[in-house]
Write a structure and sequence with these properties.
Blueprint lengths: L2 E4 L7 E2 L2 E2 L3 E5 L10 E2 L10 H4 L14 E4 L7 E2 L2 E2 L3 E5 L10 E2 L8
Parallel strand pairs: 1-9, 4-6
Antiparallel strand pairs: 2-3, 4-5, 7-8, 9-10
């Protein structure tokens, strides 16, 4: 299970740069570069200022640095049987409103 760092401040699951989900899904079946991936688990934070609420304690599970990553980016060198095996990953997309505005910045194409 990789260490997950998330800079998507507008995501409801983001707590102090960590994710409060036990598992996320990274999309990008045919991705050849990081910008073609996305965090399909992204949910836009509703109500109030995204920045004011971005790091507040939310109801539910406490965020953790560790998350399971179900990876659909089949050409990523860290993808083994649809699971991410990178030691650390970074999900980025600071002001995203939709999952396609996010990306797995750790993606590295393992294609020849």
């Amino acid at each position: 299970m990789p260490d997950l760092r998330c800079t998507v401040q507008t995501c409801t699951h983001n707590q102090n740069y960590y994710c409060n989900l036990d598992s996320i899904v990274v999309g990008g079946n045919s991705a050849k570069k990081a910008a073609e991936t996305s965090c399909d688990s992204f949910e836009e934070r509703k109500g109030g200022s995204a920045y004011a609420d971005a790091y507040s304690d939310m109801e539910g599970k406490e965020a953790s640095a560790k998350s399971s990553v179900d990876c659909k980016a089949t050409d990523c060198m860290y993808n083994k049987e649809c699971q991410c095996h990178a030691g650390k990953i970074s999900v980025e997309g600071g002001n995203a409103c939709h999952c396609d505005e996010t990306e797995c910045a750790t993606f590295k194409c393992g294609c020849a």
